[in-house]
């Protein structure tokens, strides 16, 4: 874009630290010439012309996510940039996704990026930041971009820039949206009540034939018929006698259901509702600009008793007090509260996990009690439905529990209060030298109240209540000296800074049992204190940093930075460390042989190398051995050894190399970038095994003992296929690859086995280590595994040869081996945006190719002998006849533990494509609405998590980076309508 002008300088609005909100300005020129507008982007502790960047910095502006019904800025990061992998958040309203930038930064400590809000490190919940208050966010991926954040930057940095006012006319905006919330991931297909009884009968019959040699088929059939209900399932929902329900494997054709209310998911999972309202007012004079907003968001999830409500208010003021002095401040107040759903990840198979037990409950059990004679649903004297406590259920059907009743009776409520504040002063010492100081203070108070009912479940018959509070405070203060000078065609920028960071955490928890009166869940209403505890943690960092940028005619680019950090997590003699980077770029477009090209509008080659760190350990006192209090015996105090420390432990360091090419063609109708990166993480913190006789908790000590790398390619492209006054059509896509490998382990470690993974040299930390499933023996339907070397050649009855391969039917003799990886071959997103006159449409798809998921959810539905648990429809493909070729073993109550053992059988392809979001908008013309005092009016229809295709119905491959699944609250589909108007 070019402007003909005499002397034009667009207003540039700074927030704390001198960072730029307005993204462009023109060069000064005193003659009537055409000048190219310089696009300015946010960088660490400042801003920089985009054309002179040598680092990998992806900018996402507000217009790309402003119309989406999202409660958390983390949701807008999904698909926004190559090299960024997102593990989708749960369906719990307000929840945030997990994010990894350029691979797996660590094994045992944090892999999350650093978040910086308006120039200050932010450690609070992202749900506390109103997305409509955000002007843009920048994802910093390489060392040249992140090194000024030193010890916290190993996993990348996300810079969040909030909105400021603009000089000129005051503007009042009002935004509103409302819509429905539903489930986006379909449930696994499961057999129904008519199919279920014969399948369990078959498992019992086959088990009898196996366990009692010499039994005839007729005798085994009779055994299964007689014991199906009384011995295993306990409940018969048909109107025929128990011993006539299934005869010779056939459901009695005269059987009719006594009642049909067998659905456990329906009562808990319904349609939710979302509504959002926001009013903001902004403007400014030549000296002062201001932005204020108030907002309200309320989202009820599709799971009963899960919701999120947020009130937010914000004020930001920037003022040029004197020609040499600029001051600014912003403050946000946020109150959020809601009902918490059960965390499926931490309570995967818990009786109170509604996702687990509604999924795995057999289709023959009703949640409700029924009259034994009329079979009518029972109600109490107050007209409330009576729930079935489950005394007549099989072993796999949670006898004695009722997840619907417990979910409705129990309470788990969180209330959060936030203050997020920033202030700065900027002194113009001379035309080239600027001194600024910035202060950020954030406080979060969380109050969580839990009540566990006394009628059924974990606290019955006493009842219990728990109160938890914690307060987090962060205080950041930095001082920046910035010197910018131009000598002819030479441009210099020098930054020198100092920063203090202070984090304080206070925690209190109390748990009491023995409820006194009903309808009161305050602690005073409970008799026996079980737990009363509190703790306080402190964390400090001290930093000095510097950066030097140089360019020659914006053609040859150099950048260097260094930061010294001290972290209170480590001992004094290893507390300080330096982190640095160097970068260079060649803007080929500025060369004489390309400067006049109408085809190539941008071409820049860049590269960088540097070292950043990670001190995100689980403990704030890694160098101190600690002891656990509270293990008292009556009045005698007790202390237990809690943690054995290595005093020499220190940062994990991340050495990064980046090579990139930025390009633009045809007046930037086509733009994009290609990057290659190599991240080497040294001094990986691993738990080093110790002898059990040492008496060390966990039988391990954390040490710096490993090295691994992440490397890959990133591609991004955007093309305006059509671009004119009435119609524009843009398509965009990005793609990334990732290779992760452990290259060194020391201190006696050769391998670490954790669940489905084994860490060893030459393999990724996400490579599967599993028993090797071979298949099903066509002769008798037995489950087969490759035999372990220790048992090869033996003649035991559970070892056989099939198709020339020695295998075993005993999972305890199965061979363990590497079985693929959770890391995909390719992942990314693609989308399009179209505008036609006053209409607009934008869409985005995310995808993944390659990698494997260990689907334990599916595994739980494929039991060869379910005793009241649900079964996948795939069980219908089980082996039944000699010679049959299938991958589902025979149903057998004697061998089912082998069939369902953890093995490579449960790996499934992680490929997916998701219709992540779409927005359709219509903007009224200014002429048609001006008579109503409006300057703009826009109608919107928007959706999130609209559709997905996976290798198996019910599978959610994006729920974790390591490829495992849990019974969790799957992401919600949200569809809203709304409008934006301005006065």
TrEMBL record:
> Locate the TonB-dependent receptor plug domain: which residues?
50-157
* Presence of the UniProt keyword Transport in the record: yes
One GO cellular component, as annotated: cell outer membrane
Q: Which Gene3D superfamilies match?
A: TonB-dependent receptor, beta-barrel domain, TonB-dependent receptor, plug domain
Q: Does the keyword Transmembrane helix apply?
A: no
Stored Pfam families: Plug (PF07715)
* Keyword annotations from UniProtKB, A to Z: Cell outer membrane, Membrane, Transmembrane, Transmembrane beta strand, Transport
- State the membrane topology: Multi-pass membrane protein
Q: Localized where?
A: Cell outer membrane
Family stated for the protein in its record: Belongs to the TonB-dependent receptor family.
Entry protein name: TonB-linked SusC/RagA family outer membrane protein
Record the organism. Answer: Chryseobacterium defluvii
